[in-house]
Amino acid sequence: MCSWAGLSPGNNESAGKRESGRTRKGNKKLRSALVEAARAAARTKNTYLSSQYHRLAARRGKNRAAVAVAHSILTIACHIIKRKQPFIELGPTYYEEHKRDTVIKQSIKKLESLGYKVTVESVA
User: Residue 87 phi/psi, 5° resolution?
Assistant: First the structure.
């Protein structure tokens, strides 16, 4: 569905180096409506899509971030229709929590591979 809308990025890889590509041509009206919805979602406060937009816009630019959020919106809509389940808002801190958990797991795995026994306790 995202490919038909022209929201799927190209995937170019050469010699193990990944490079981003252009999005494909798709349904222009659907694509422009979704990008406009993504820009509106970016202006909301304390939402998953807003935090996704601002995180990407800082690194990749506003236009690429808007297309990425539009891709997420269409993916969410497809899942809602296909699975007949309500949308669950992950919240603005989802990325930070996910990254924190990933860093903890990677650190534990690295220490255990070096021969240490690790127990994790929360300070607060």
Answer: -75, 135
Q: How many domains are contained in the chain? A: 2
Name the 3-class secondary structure at 118.
coil
3, 23 Cβ separation under 8 angstroms: no
9 and 70 together in one domain: yes
How many residues make up the chain in this entry? 124
Q: How far apart are CA 51 and CA 45, in angstroms?
A: 8
Tens digit of each residue's pLDDT (9 = 90 or more) over 51-95: 999 999 999 999 999 999 999 999 999 999 999 999 889 988 888
Print burial letters for 82-120: b (CB count within 10 Å at least 16), e (below 16).
Answer: eeeeeeeeeebeeeeeeeeeeeeeeeeeeeeeeeeeeee
Q: Which domain holds residue 97?
A: 93-124
User: What is the sign of the dihedral through the CA atoms of 58, 63, 66 and 70?
Assistant: negative
SS3 14: strand
pTM value is: 0.74
Which helix (H) or strand (E) is 101 found in, with range? helix 94-113
